[in-house]
Specification:
Helix content is 29%, strand content 34%. By secondary structure, the chain is an alpha+beta fold. Bound molecules: magnesium ion (MG).
Length: 160
């Protein structure tokens, strides 16, 4: 059995000392404004996984009104989501992530991020895709005011 899900997330950028994307710390002059650590890559991915199994979204699972999740490590939240999926008998088979960002530049950190996501998900590297695009300096992403991520995830059942 296979199930497919998609996820989307966006966070605002402001001046800071670094951002976490796909669990990878990237030192830069920005930070992502969020209730949690603002890891848009993992947020979009968690929504794709939950979507595949019709388990709602991360807003339902980890409400931003709950102080428990203030500054939450998204890698920890991912562990919870993976466990939920495992309970339903499904694990991710492959992931495809598209990062929409004008800054910071993704190309120099892309391979490290891919490895980081693969490790976090206990998945082989060749089933984890990280792509990136700018928006041609157009709109709020193009002005470097935000980073958005689109995620697709194929889940497969481990029975049969
Ligand atoms: Mg988010």
């Amino acid at each position: 059995m296979i199930r497919v899900g998609q996820g989307f997330d966006l966070h605002r950028l402001e001046s800071g000392d670094g951002i976490t994307l796909g669990g990878l710390w990237i030192p830069c002059e920005y930070r992502l404004v969020a209730h949690s650590d603002g890891d848009v890559v993992l947020h979009a991915l968690m929504d794709a996984m939950l979507g595949a199994l019709a388990l709602g979204d991360i807003g339902q699972l980890f409400p931003d009104t709950d102080p428990t999740y203030r500054g939450a490590d998204s890698a920890e939240l991912m562990r919870v989501v993976r466990a939920r999926c495992l309970d339903k008998g499904f694990t991710p088979y492959n992931l495809d992530l598209t990062i929409l960002a004008e800054r910071p530049k993704i190309a120099p950190v892309r391979d490290a991020m891919r490895q980081c996501v693969a490790d976090l998900m206990s998945m082989p590297l060749d089933r984890v895709s990280v792509k990136a695009t700018t928006t041609e300096r157009l709109g709020f992403i193009g002005r470097g005011e935000a980073i958005a991520v689109m995620a697709n995830c194929l889940m497969h059942s481990h029975e049969g």
